[in-house]
Design a protein that fits this description.
- This protein is mainly α and about 110 residues long.
- The chain has one domain.
- The protein has two helices and no strands.
- Helix 1 runs antiparallel to helix 2.
């Protein structure tokens, strides 16, 4: 029974790790595409067009920062959940060690 619980927790940890990696990759892709978009459009625009767009960029920056904060919150939540799973797995390993010690003692 303990082995199945440990296996279940290990599978859950793996799933959380995969999810975390996917979220990180998606975030980095968004950051790179954002940086490329700014660089390319800044070169093509005239000075007057840049001034006009500065106000719009500030609004976009605020929205993106809010989205980024949400993603960071999700990342923190995933890391916290992963930490909890590792702690539970540690407890199971300790319990299994105690059970093995009792078996050895009774033999």
């Amino acid at each position: 029974m303990l082995k199945s619980m440990a296996a279940s927790l290990a599978a859950e940890i793996q799933q959380s790790s995969r999810s975390l990696r996917k979220q990180e990759q998606e975030y980095f892709k968004q950051v790179k595409s954002y940086e490329k978009g700014i660089t390319n459009s800044a070169i093509e625009l005239t000075a007057e067009q840049r001034k006009t767009m500065e106000g719009e960029w500030e609004m976009v920056d605020i929205e993106e920062k809010q989205e980024e904060n949400g993603q960071i919150g999700q990342l923190v939540g995933s890391i916290t959940r992963l930490s909890t799973l590792y702690k539970e797995l540690n407890q199971l390993v300790v319990v299994q060690g105690t059970v093995i010690d009792r078996i050895d003692y009774n033999l």
